[in-house]
Amino acid sequence: MAGALSEVLGEVLVSADGEEVSVSALSARGVSLVGLYFGCSLSGPCAQLGASLAAFYGRFRGEAAAAGAQRLEIVFVSAEQEQQQWQDAVRTMPWLALPFNEKHRKLKLWNKYRVSNIPSLIFIDASTGKVVCRNGLLVIRDDPEGLEFPWGPKPFSEVVAGPLLRNNGQTLDSSALEGSHVGVYFSAHWCPPCRSLTRVLVESYRKIKEAGQKFEILFVSADRSEDSFKQYFSEMPWVAVPYTDEARRSRLNRLYGIQGIPTLIVLDSQGEVITRQGRVEVLNDIECREFPWHPKPVLELTDSNAVQLNEGPCLVLFVDSEDDGESEAAKQLIQPIAEKIIAKYKAKEEEAPLLFFVAGEDDMTDSLRDYTNLPEAAPLLTILDMSARAKYVMDVEEITPEIVEAFVSDFLADKLKPEPI
Q1: Does the keyword field hold Nucleus (predicted)?
Q2: pTM for this one?
């Protein structure tokens, strides 16, 4: 266990009283699950979470004392910028924390688990380091007594099981989804980007069905009232989890670790995830020619997928789009390296640590260059880490596969020196 956890957390953690605790010591305590709590004491939502999380953690500590083993440990991964603030926050916490000076490791954890907002609680298996549940905040709300411990992922068919609705009031059993591709659509009427996506998605749904594809969309509402749900659902030609079945809606949010809406998860006919970026795919493929949108190793940077730059480190190769075929040639250059990285991490059941893009010349790309203060050269090979406000630049006359592979390898090995954005 210590090896897998040490790879994630390092060798030492800190307790509330400032004592160092060896990561390897967690094994002796019987810890089988670790919750990574990403937060900041200056955040109102984090402060609100504190009491309920402490009570939740305390129940497990009480059970541990009775049973002679501690099943759960929580580790605070802080966003504090000042050491005194960090110390004050950690003193109030009954769990452990990543040391303040481990800033680089903290950043790697935020990127590794694609944490986009706080508070966030992600449970990982202590023996393997693999993600068990991406949305631990819902676990605390839905299972405060820990009866479903260790909250591992279940098959989609099991989580969704039960009656579904059509907007005319008819019901059907969730087994009707079997054998179809399914888009699990997390959305709400109060959210303007959701309403905009829904209008596009209705047309995409129609085109896919008219093409004879077996496809269904399942609406999982985040509306604030049943009336809002009914009004919004009346615009949708697909099926929904009943608004009154809050437990099932929450389980689906937990299953896919939903951190924001709109989110469209596309599943294959076996219920396995094809892509978590259904929103981007729908907007980029209006004619639905590439349905069911299997992920591409290298993407062309566009207005609709630029949001992914904020999800973690991204390799971006800037090219001169006025040169015919330059973008396609750049994709072909990067693709074998991207495929190799993706396959390596998929074998470990982890997300790749980099996304790969080719960027041409347009207003959006010009804005990105200006914001990140990049040279005007083309081609220009970069890795942009927006959350760390860091960039890595390879400005050479010719970009070769060997240069790209060495650049990526050095980045993953922490051999590159970042420049500030």
Answers
A1: yes
A2: 0.84
